Amino acid sequence: MKLFDLSILAILSYTTTVQCGCFDETSPLGNPSLAVPAIPNLCKNMVGVYAPKAPIYSCHYMGQIPYEVWVASLAPNNITLTMNQCVQYLKPALECQRGGEFTYNGLWRIGASINISPCG
User: What range defines the domain where residue 106 resides?
Assistant: First the structure.
């Protein structure tokens, strides 16, 4: 392997692969200006160790709007979600007008959607 190839591999090892995106116009409208500032508070309940394929869902009001947020591990073994990861990964979903879902490095699926029914 050439030195150039090793440099490319080193750079790629520090990048994050993101897939999925914002939900379409058939989903209810949310309010990103209220949702995004709430991310650190939401993440307090989402950080920790996740078992494979054991998603955690919760419902939270952003103003009068009920948001469903979720995190699922796609890893084959237990994996830890840190506060920094949670904030970084949840932000794109809450920046979407109608919520969204994103997959990171094939390890995490994190998203948010606007509920048409109240939390409860």
Answer: 17-114
